[in-house]
What we know:
- It contains 10 helices and 5 strands.
- By secondary structure, it is of the alpha/beta class.
- It has a 5-stranded parallel beta sheet with strand order 2-3-1-4-5, with helices on both faces.
- It is globular.
Amino acid sequence: MNLNLNQTIYWIGGSACSGKSTIAARYAEKHGLDLYVCDAHSEVHMKQISPQNHPAMLKSTLMDFNEAFCLTDPQEQLRHYIQFFKEDFLFVIQDLADKPADRPVVVEGNQLLPCLVDPYLKSHSHHRALWLVPAEPFQRKFYSQRPWIHDVLRQTDDPLIAFDNWMNRDASFAKYVHREAVELNRYVIEVDGSISLHENFETVERILT
């Protein structure tokens, strides 16, 4: 799927608990841009999947939280997680292709793997991108403070094991994104709590603007 060459897109990818959602929303609001949050469209995308083209997305619909986080090895979770994002990214591109080309948009989500976004950066002069990833101690600390996390964990046989597996998967994903962005010579920011969200926002703004 091709995007309009005149379309301006600011890609903000990375891993959960890095502040990317907050920063993307703030950047879009400050600069008067449209905001496309990948996860907000996932429910619609899931209604369009097929077993042949979207096996990872289909698998996600068949697993409960216990199977996902207690009964599945973190590295297998990671492989499934990455494949899910690769499949969903194609839906994201379709959505963006349907948007008016004269409306610049900030796109945010874990789906924006560096290897998937990089071809558009090379072929579209109006595109900018960066990735935000959390350091593992920062991720574990702040993930555990999110109330909805515990609602999920209570649905597993062993919440402690489920949480540890979940965090191991996400830490591995953050490293995967970081490594891929570096290999492609793209901007990546590691968030470890040593500087404020506002300072990270200012860094993002300098890179994208």
